[in-house]
């Protein structure tokens, strides 16, 4: 099993200590980034991820990608599509990630990837990656419990399905399984950048992922780790969670 590591949060290079992956076969993607705005830079960052994911699928492997934020899922899905696999999306996240540039009050681009996958603001990143728009009814959002008003309004009128980790209603066909680790209750996972209380336990999330993996339908696994650099004791919890998810 090879883990593809993109050690970045957006276009910011993160310290190696942010990703406790010792004992695993890790291939890091660290391209030189051009000058330009953040969208140009993340597009350049993600292009080799698209190629790596497509190449692994063509070679008969299931890609496992770890990075510092959810934007990477756009590159992973583009790579899955490039390999000729028409995948639906299962998106574990405490947040909706369905903002557009216009709806976001903070401008945080990490809150936009699922909406871009569904067809919003495609010129910013999806078009540059060759990512084809996914129909809303082929996306499932799992345990999103911290939604901004604009996100709640969009989801209420969309065909995106929502469910809890213990009752995931899978969409049809092959799957991109995306897991933002902040789906875990903040009390159980220290140092999250965007902690949200009231979520499932680590064990419940891992059990849900195992059930989905057992279907044999997962074409690629993408794990986002939006957490701060570790403090004393953080590594053990994080390493155990990542190992459990990657080997589920």
Can you give me a brief rundown of this structure?
With 248 residues, the chain is of the alpha/beta class. It has helices at 38-58, 72-82, 113-117, 126-129, 149-157, 202-213, 234-246, and strands at 2-6, 8-9, 12-13, 25-28, 64-67, 88-92, 139-142, 161-163, 175-180, 218-224. Strand 9 (175-180), helix 6 (202-213) and strand 10 form a beta-alpha-beta unit.
Lay out the secondary structure.
Blueprint: E1 2-6, E2 8-9, E3 12-13, E4 25-28, H1 38-58, E5 64-67, H2 72-82, E6 88-92, H3 113-117, H4 126-129, E7 139-142, H5 149-157, E8 161-163, E9 175-180, H6 202-213, E10 218-224, H7 234-246
Parallel strand pairs: 1-4, 1-5, 5-10, 6-7, 6-9, 7-8, 9-10
Antiparallel strand pairs: 2-3
Helix pairs in contact: 1-2
What does this structure look like?
It comes from Actinomadura coerulea. InterPro entries: Ureohydrolase, Ureohydrolase_dom_sf. Pfam families: Arginase. By secondary structure, the chain is of the alpha/beta class. The chain has one domain: Ureohydrolase domain (Arginase, Chain A, 3-Layer(aba) Sandwich), CATH 3.40.800.10. It has helices spanning 38-58, 72-82, 113-117, 126-129, 149-157, 202-213, 234-246; strands at residues 2-6, 8-9, 12-13, 25-28, 64-67, 88-92, 139-142, 161-163, 175-180, 218-224. The strands form two sheets. The protein has an eight-stranded parallel sheet, with helices on both faces. The protein has a two-stranded antiparallel ribbon with strand order 2-3. A hairpin with a 2-residue loop joins strand 2 and strand 3 (12-13). The protein is globular, with a radius of gyration of 16 Å. The N and C termini lie close together (12 Å).
């Amino acid at each position: 099993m090879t883990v593809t590591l993109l050690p970045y949060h957006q276009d910011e290079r993160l310290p190696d200590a942010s990703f406790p992956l010792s004992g695993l076969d890790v291939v890091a993607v660290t391209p030189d980034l051009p000058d330009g705005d953040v969208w140009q830079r993340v597009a350049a960052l993600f292009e080799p991820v698209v190629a790596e994911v497509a190449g692994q699928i063509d070679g008969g492997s299931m890609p496992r990608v770890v990075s510092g934020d959810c934007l990477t899922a756009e590159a992973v899905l583009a790579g899955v599509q490039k390999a000729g696999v028409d995948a639906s999306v299962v998106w574990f996240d405490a947040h909706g990630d369905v903002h557009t540039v216009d709806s976001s009050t903070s401008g945080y681009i990490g809150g936009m990837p699922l909406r871009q996958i569904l067809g919003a603001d495609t010129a910013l990143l999806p078009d540059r990656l060759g990512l084809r728009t996914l129909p809303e009814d082929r996306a499932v959002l799992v345990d999103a419990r911290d939604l901004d008003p604009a996100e709640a309004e969009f989801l209420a009128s969309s065909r995106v399905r929502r469910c809890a980790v213990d009752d995931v209603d899978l969409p049809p066909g092959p799957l991109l399984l995306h897991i933002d680790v902040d789906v875990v209750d903040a009390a159980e996972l220290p140092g999250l950048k965007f902690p949200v209380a009231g979520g499932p336990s680590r064990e419940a999330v891992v059990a849900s992922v195992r059930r989905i993996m057992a279907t044999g339908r997962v074409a690629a696994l993408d794990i986002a780790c939006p957490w701060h650099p570790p403090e004393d004791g953080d590594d053990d919890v994080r390493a155990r969670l990542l190992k459990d998810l990657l080997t589920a």
